[in-house]
Specification:
Layout: H1 3-14, H2 20-39, H3 44-51, H4 54-75, E1 77-81, E2 84-87, H5 102-151
Antiparallel strand pairs: 1-2
Length: 155
């Protein structure tokens, strides 16, 4: 069997079973594979014998393609709105999920940061008030005590 015959038989077996783009991808793969193996010193006939029957290869490709479709279907989501999705596999269990726009997320983040800064300033202001109400009078009392002690030493 020649490479062209192998590829034609493979194409015929895949035709109608998988999308045409996937058929072309697979044909290109086997064409490139044979060329690569020929560069390694194998003959076209040896390579095609190693590969086996094109119809068996096609069956494997088709089965794999259907497996992938089932997997994709299981996890596929259909977007109805820009901010929600519905699970197509289980429409009874579908739920709308809100996806926050980026600008709204940024606005909320800025508000949270400003709120945290405000709380820190409030705590700092409370500390300053405490120092002014208690610390300064204590300092004045201590200074007066020191001055009095200086002018009126103990005998």
């Amino acid at each position: 069997m020649k490479l062209q015959d192998f590829l034609e038989e493979l194409k015929d077996a895949l035709d109608g079973e998988i999308p045409p783009t996937q058929i072309e991808v697979n044909l290109k793969y086997y064409r490139d594979y044979v060329k690569q193996r020929e560069q390694q010193g194998k003959t076209e006939e040896e390579i095609l014998n190693e590969l086996g029957e094109p119809r068996l290869i096609a069956r494997t490709i088709i089965d794999t393609s259907h497996l992938n479709k089932n997997t994709e279907k299981k996890y596929n989501t259909t977007y109805q709105k820009k901010d929600s999705y519905t699970d197509t596999e289980n429409p009874d269990l579908s739920s709308n999920v809100y996806h926050m726009p980026l600008w709204l997320f940024k606005v909320i983040a800025i508000i949270v940061i400003l709120l945290i800064i405000s709380i820190l300033f409030w705590i700092g202001g409370m500390a300053v008030k405490l120092i002014l109400k208690i610390g300064i009078p204590l300092l004045i009392i201590y200074l007066l005590y020191s001055v009095i002690k200086e002018f009126f030493p103990k005998k």
